[in-house]
C-alpha cells in the first residue's frame, strides 16, 4: 500500500525496541532502524499521506470510515477501534468495541425494528481450518438484509457463501415446517423467499488462503 502514498511512516514497537522506516512514493528512505526503546504495549503505527496521483479523491469521509470500522469491530469481537477526526476545531471521536460479535451486529442493524423472535440465532463452526459464523434475526418487515464477509471483507454479491447459506436456510425451515405438521395444517407451501422475509443476517467466513475476486 506504500506506493499509493506520497509518504508513509511505519513505527513498530516490539520486544522493547522501537523500529522505524519511511517511504516516499513507495521507495524506502533508509533501511529499518531502531530509534529507541519502550515499555508497555507492543504494536504498529502507520502514518501516511494518500497520493493524489493515484486517487482522484483524497478527502476522507468520516461516515464511510465509521461504517467500515464499525463492521470490523463487530466482526472481530473484543477488538477496540478508536476513530478520531481532528481536521476541524470540533474534534469528532468514536470508540467502537463490541463483545457480542455477530449477534450484536444484527441487533445493531435491527435496532429500530420489531423482532419476531426473542434473541438472534447465532451459529459458529469450523472445518478444514475454515471458520464460519452466522447470526440470524427476523423482524416484522418484508425486507431481507443479508451481509456476507470473507476474511472481514464485504462480499457485495454474496457469492457462493450466500448461495449456500440461502439453500441451507430454506432446507432447514421447510424441513421443520413439514415434520412439525405446520404445512399440512396451514395448507401452504414454502418458497426460499418466504424463509427470508424480514430476515437480517450476517455471514462471516474466515479462510486461511483466500482466492476470491469480488473483494474490492
Give the helix/strand layout:
Blueprint: E1 5-14, E2 17-24, E3 27-28, E4 33-37, E5 43-50, H1 62-75, E6 81-85, E7 92-96, H2 101-109, E8 121-127, E9 130-138, E10 145-150, E11 153-154, H3 159-179, H4 182-186, H5 192-196, E12 199-206
Helix pairs in contact: 1-2
Describe the protein.
This protein has 216 residues and is an alpha+beta fold. The chain has two domains: 5-98, Histidine kinase-like ATPase, C-terminal domain (Heat Shock Protein 90); 101-206, 2-Layer Sandwich (Ribosomal Protein S5, domain 2). The chain is 25% helix and 35% strand. A hairpin with a 6-residue loop joins strand 6 and strand 7. The mean pLDDT is 89.
Question: What's the quick description here?
Answer:
Residues 101-216 form the DNA topoisomerase type IIA subunit B domain. This protein has 216 residues and is α+β, with helices and mostly antiparallel strands. The protein has five helices and twelve strands.
Amino acid at each position: 500500500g506504500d506506493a499509493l502514498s506520497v509518504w508513509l511512516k511505519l513505527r513498530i514497537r516490539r520486544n522493547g525496541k522501537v523500529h522505524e522506516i519511511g517511504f516516499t512514493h513507495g521507495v524506502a528512505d533508509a533501511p529499518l532502524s531502531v530509534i529507541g526503546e519502550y515499555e508497555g504495549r507492543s504494536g504498529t503505527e502507520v502514518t501516511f499521506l494518500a497520493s493524489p496521483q493515484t486517487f482522484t479523491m483524497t478527502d476522507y469521509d468520516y461516515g464511510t470510515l465509521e461504517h467500515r470500522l464499525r463492521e470490523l469491530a463487530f466482526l472481530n469481537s473484543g477488538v477496540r477501534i478508536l476513530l478520531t477526526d481532528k481536521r476541524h476545531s470540533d474534534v469528532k471521536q468514536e470508540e467502537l468495541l463490541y463483545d457480542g460479535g455477530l449477534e450484536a451486529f444484527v441487533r445493531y442493524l435491527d435496532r429500530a425494528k420489531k423482532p419476531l423472535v426473542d434473541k438472534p440465532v447465532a451459529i459458529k463452526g469450523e472445518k478444514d481450518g475454515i471458520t464460519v459464523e452466522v447470526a440470524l434475526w427476523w423482524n416484522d418487515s418484508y425486507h431481507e438484509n443479508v451481509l456476507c464477509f470473507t476474511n472481514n471483507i464485504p462480499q457485495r454479491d454474496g457469492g457462493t457463501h450466500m448461495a449456500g447459506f440461502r439453500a441451507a436456510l430454506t432446507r432447514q425451515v421447510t424441513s421443520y415446517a413439514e415434520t412439525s405438521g405446520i404445512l399440512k395444517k396451514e395448507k401452504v407451501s414454502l418458497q426460499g423467499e418466504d424463509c427470508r422475509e424480514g430476515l437480517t443476517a450476517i455471514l462471516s467466513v474466515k479462510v486461511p488462503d483466500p482466492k476470491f475476486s469480488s473483494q474490492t
